[in-house]
Amino acid sequence: MIIGVKKRNVNAASASSASKLLAMAKKRSSKATLLLIFISFTALYAFLPVLAPLPSLSSSSHHNKVNRNFEISRDMFWKDSQPFQIIGGDLHYFRVHPQYWEDRLLKAKALGLNTIQTYVPWNLHEPSPGRHVFEGFADIESFLKLCNKLGLLVMLRPGPYICAEWDWGGFPAWFSSMSPSPKLRSSDPTFLHLVLVGCGLFLYLSLCLSVAVIEVSTYYSFLFKVERWWGNLLPKLVPLLYQNGGPIIMVQIENEYGSYGNDKAYLQHLVVLARSHLGPDIILYTTDGGARENLEKGTIRGDAVYSAVDFSTGDDPWPIFELQKKYNAPGKSPPLSAEFYTGWLTHWGEKIAKTDADFTAASLEKILQKNGSAVLYMAHGGTNFGFYSGANTGSAEADYQPDLTSYDYDAPIREDGDVDNSKYNAIRKVIARYSSVPLPSVPSNIQKTAYGPIHLQRKTFLFDEFNFTSSTNVFESEQPMSMESVGQLFGFLLYVTQYKANGGIKTLLIPKLHDRAQVFISCPSDVTGARPSYVGAIERWSNNKLNLPNLKCHSNINLLILVENMGRVNYGPYIFDGKGILSSVYLDGEILHRWKMFPIPLHNLNEVPTHNGIMQVAYSARGKRLTSKYENTSREPAFYSGHFSIDKSSEVKDTYISFNNWGKGIAFVNDFDIGRYWPLRGPQCNLYVPAPVLKQGNNYLFW
């Protein structure tokens, strides 16, 4: 199997490039004294954005300005000097196939929306350090231009944190491999320089005015991998600002920060950085829950940043809007619910979240009838393709709740774009009463079809793709390494070690496992060719011990633990969510040592398939059938593939794949990662396949 990494020993945890830089920095420690003067000047420079006055909402600019303006005055929004009521909806470009952007936007416009709100996920646009992607699902410029073409305004939410039920709230997973790890969403210099160094200065030290010399590698790796994020993104938006002829009327700073922290210096840094790229005219805004505590922590007083609110559907909106005024400058507080919830998210193992259509529409009318503004969250949810679905936790970190592949959200425009439903009709009826223009006719639903049963053949067992004794595609360590440490940012990682075969049942304990493990044992000296035996699953949310059965073996016994990353936590205090085995592993109370970690490279959304060893085996085996007496009984993980043919281009249509009676896994159609399936846990049993993924002729499935 070709995995693309060389064998290495990482007892000193030196797997990442940041560690190499750290070693270089230590060699330079003798030069620390020469940096002291540099420390003083650079630290003072870093503080200047915090100390500088924030530009006012009423500031003006002449940069590429056309005869258009969007502003706030007299507690109202004004578009080109006319009062304007925002009737918007969230529609995330990264959850919709680009060929369907126009269809979904037209349906949003027919619903009565005049504004689209969307997040910008950092991890999609920078999937690996320094590699910025703005094509395919990440082609935000084309999406925004399409909004403009269709006459839809845009409220943009570039983070850097977005929540959104998206993996790690949009933060790139490779942050976790850095040492020291950045303290996210704070003015901690490690994190802040990731986001804020638009000045292009190579900072080697802390914002603190202490004389402590910070390791060069910390800032070096951050600067060259992350400083360019807003520096790359925001300049692309300037021509698309409303005053420059584009659709963007407002840009959000952070996201519901008052529910997380209280670091005003961090928020002010973001404001200054945004202004430095976007100019003083664009309205910057924050969104926080409509409670005093959230607004106290998440807003910036004065008239530099407009403070919007969100709250539960059904709450009386107007007392909350009155509270909102206290956190905006006088005359600068038009009532806006920036997230009016049309439905809710669903986790694996729950019932599909549903909200009543008439109740939702009536709650919206309470806002609109008094000239309040609202943004539907969601207008159209879409799909968490690939490995990007996020997760939540309850009151404890172990109460882990991963999100479904579907992000339907019970929104008026369904996951597959259908609008023939009671919620769409009820909301549209309400909006029509308050819209300043007649609503467009409703586009038809996109056609769907069933392609019938598809025979799948098992092509290879996963474990057959590894040589556990002499593989060069392995990481070795005395203790288990995290997924991020070996570069396996998504999907699966196989952990292998051995224990003595001295008889009796043994108890396996993994104190910190993120997120789910399948456990197998095998006897390498067994000459009968017996397959590895499935013992059971260990799940983060139950963290159960597992009894390993007595296995007669003349050698040490192989212990194989296949760990799945089911999505990083995207909200709450436990957002620092590394993946894999994050603790020692105990067998009958004794720590197991000498681990081997085998990455399993499966490509993510918007990534070009690499056709590594695993994928090559599956695809090269097309038309061949693996015969085995374990075919129908083994619970060993395996790869399956199949195909079906579409005779005419006119027959290429949307469809769903049913996974009833299957276990758990990830599915690819024509190399496109359509997401996770887990019908045994439910509630989602079918995965949506948009027609642009399919083609005339043979179509291949792989999971």
From TrEMBL:
Look up the domain of life of the source: Eukaryota
Transmembrane segments annotated in the record for this chain: 32-52
Q: Where is the Glycoside hydrolase 35 catalytic domain?
A: 77-194, 220-433
Keyword Secreted recorded: no
Q: What class of enzyme is it?
A: hydrolase
Which Enzyme Commission numbers does its entry carry? Answer: 3.2.1.23
PROSITE patterns (alphabetical): GLYCOSYL_HYDROL_F35 (PS01182)
Q: Which UniProt keywords apply?
A: Glycoprotein, Glycosidase, Hydrolase, Membrane, Signal, Transmembrane, Transmembrane helix
Which parts of the sequence belong to the Beta-galactosidase 1-like first all-beta domain? 480-600
Q: Which reaction does it catalyse?
A: Hydrolysis of terminal non-reducing beta-D-galactose residues in beta-D-galactosides
- Which Gene3D superfamilies does this one have? Galactose-binding domain-like (2.60.120.260), Glycosidases (3.20.20.80)
Gene Ontology annotations of biological process type: carbohydrate metabolic process
Q: Where is the signal peptide?
A: none
Show where the Beta-galactosidase galactose-binding domain sits: 637-699
- Is Transmembrane among the key words of this record? yes
Catalytic residues identified in the record: E256 (proton donor), E339 (nucleophile)
Q: Which InterPro entries does the annotation name?
A: B-gal_1-like, BetaGal1-like_ABD1, BetaGal_gal-bd, Galactose-bd-like_sf, GH, Gly_Hdrlase_35_cat, Glyco_hydro_35_CS, Glycoside_Hdrlase_35
Q: Name one GO molecular function term.
A: beta-galactosidase activity
- Could you say which protein family the record assigns here? Belongs to the glycosyl hydrolase 35 family.
Query: What protein does this entry describe?
Result: Beta-galactosidase
| Organism encoding this protein | Arachis hypogaea (Peanut)
